[in-house]
## 1
Amino acid sequence: MKSDARPRTLPRRRKPSLAARVKPFWILMLVLLVLVAVGGAWLARSPWFRVARVGIDVPLASPVSDERVRAAAAIAPDANVWLLNGGAIRKRIEAIPYVDRATVHRGQFPQPFVELSITVRRPTACVRAGDREVTIDASSRVLQPGCAAPTVARIDAGPAKLPLPGGTVADPDVGRLLADARTLADANLALRSLGRDRFGGLEAVDVTGVVLKFGDDADLAKKASLVAPVRAGIGTKRPVRAIDLRSPGTPTVEFR
């Protein structure tokens, strides 16, 4: 008589879970975490890493003082030199209108220190709009109220809105006037002022007081190149009041 009994399959032993394996050591792990936290807090407050010196390097005759850089950096006297946010310090310093770039360097020996250095922006023009006048650099950033450099060109921006120091002049017509000023500078024309006439044409006054009427600025470089030949042809016998270049093929001269 045959038996129908089949061999029993023994239950497979399950591999213990990670939680089960770690459970006997949880107290030890908790103690280690507490020790790490306490050690980290002690290191953060340790006098070994406390800033002992903040050095500041600014260019000669800089419009930004050491004190202003120090105040903007806002480094607390008990700060840990390695926990300082260098990027945030740099951004605060670069928010000073005249600052172009700031660098932050940290070190430990002989005592924990921070070295701050800056490069500064230079005035390239003064812009007037309504009753306000500001000094700007080559990127149209407003450096300060008023005109800080009397020898640079004064731009008449008409009804444009001018931002506060640290902002950038975004008015498109002011941007076009500044581009025209650069074109005229490339033509070796030193200007006292630049703006629009009542018809919207470009008009400048050079450093000798002669009015230069350019009209449409689409071909400004060509018109600017005619100023020197026209003046050379006039000579110095009669004082010139204005040179009209609105028709570059037939420039005209107005005498005083």
## 2
Amino acid sequence: MTERLDPIALARENWTEAGWSDVADGMVAVTSVMRAHQILLARVETSLRPYDLSFSRYELLRLLAFSRTGSMPITKASDRLQVHVTSVTHAIRRLEANGLVRRAPHPTDGRTTLVEITDIGRSTVEDATTTLNRDVFSDVGMDDAEISGLVTAIHSLRHHNGDF
């Protein structure tokens, strides 16, 4: 059996031959991260499909389940998830339609709306988490040292780019 060629390695060769060798490593890094994202997202989406959840809706449910009261202002959820409030509102609509969350007025601030996880939302996110832990997080395809190195490298990239 012949070994398949790595398309990203071939792209590096093309980049170098085109005269861009000074940025070839950066292109390979970005392209590799983007491809890894596609691979992992496909695995996550496959695991979440039986729960009718996207990863963004799962993250919102998990955030609410981790919160002390099971609810939080929509703007706070947006900040914690690092996405625009419009994206959170869209996720809330989908989760509301499935009975997994509900909106409620803030008890002391009439300008603020809370998003609150329901009992069915809580059981759904617990089941989905068990599935993700078993099918994705327990074996991402790297050993512990590789995972640690990757996390350190991505932490550095995020920090350098102002993510925190």
## 3
Amino acid sequence: MYQKTLLAFLILFLFPLQVFAETILEKVKRTGELNAATRQDAIPFGYIDNNNQWTGYSLDLILLIRQQLEKELNRPVKLKLTESTVDNRFDNIQSKKVDLICDPTTMTQERLEKIDFSVPYFMTGSQFLIKLQEAPKFDVNGTLENVPIAYIPNTTTDQIIRQIYPFAKWKIVKSRSEGVEKLKTGEVAAVASDGILLIGELVRNGNDPKEFALTPRQPMTTELYGCILPKNDPKWKQFINQVITSPNHQEIQKKWFNVEQGSFPYTVRVEP
């Protein structure tokens, strides 16, 4: 009787611990499902195109990860894709709602306290988007005192660039799209964000990139984007890193960013 009671106790308490300790690779092998997320509003990384299709560079990377998982685990893997946002991305990883998020998220030491990152898969930097005709008057080497500039809170631009130009008139916007609209109407003189995302916003909303400029030529920060991963799962991180550093991923990069043939070449003028 004692032995049966002890066995029941061990099953009750040790089995949940076993599930808790399960790695993502083990979970995917057991369930045949990969839970991943990317953006729907961040061209070219993840966005809804003119045909109402979810597409993007980060989405292609996730599809490659799914494909490589099938080879690694020798079984079919179904992708369950959800939307990531600036507000939910870290919570969804920490709560294990998703196994990974590949979107334009900058790798920082502060964020590493809560989540983990893959090796970088893209590099950009913070710049100002301005109207081309206003470029001669926008002195990026000055203090930009009283110059109205749009920015998105809770981003690295918020944390760093506003400290560089404390005398500018910083105006909060909820999205780069809102910032670009305020720029077009003259409510702000510039929008501060990662250069690649500012270009993407122009393209997404049908603006002519030739009417705008990015400044300074050398971005004010170095933003390394990595896939967001749960902490304390080294085998999963190693697998994702292998995919990102593979020749197959290099082909995806060429597909999107080749200057002559890519789906998203840089087409905005860059000011000194």
## 4
Amino acid sequence: MKKINNGFVVMLMLTISFVSAQDKIKLNHDHSKMEMKQTPIEFSNENVANAYEHYEHVKNDLVGSNPGDAQKGAEMLNEALGKVEGAGAALSASQKIAATDNLKVQRKAFSELSTKMEDILRGKITAGKLYKDFCPMALNGGAYWLSSIEDIRNPYYGAQMLSCGKVAEVIQ
């Protein structure tokens, strides 16, 4: 009986350790659930607002280094960008992200996507603000991204260098 109790205790401890480790992994990699100072943003066009929402999804998945989720988010972004006038270049960049689960390739395409999304979003914000962030170390020369939070959450390095970067511009 004592052996059974000891075996049960060992199994219970292993289970608790495993669950605890899984929770730690989730905490370290699911940055989309972190509490941040987010400013509600409103756009003059519903299709543009929808596209930005999916852009944020892709960005947050890259921050969390989740290429499969970024791929799914990019597929939704592709559909949303298809409804936005003049979004061909952004759609092309988004399609590159959707076409691969290679994180390095996705992050390079995300830089291009961010530039093209800025072109789409600029002048269409009716309330709130966007932060144009910059990481000087990304992609061997620096890269920008857009965010609805002031805190830096780097999509080019994820947890490796989560807060590397600075707000380069506030777009209103």
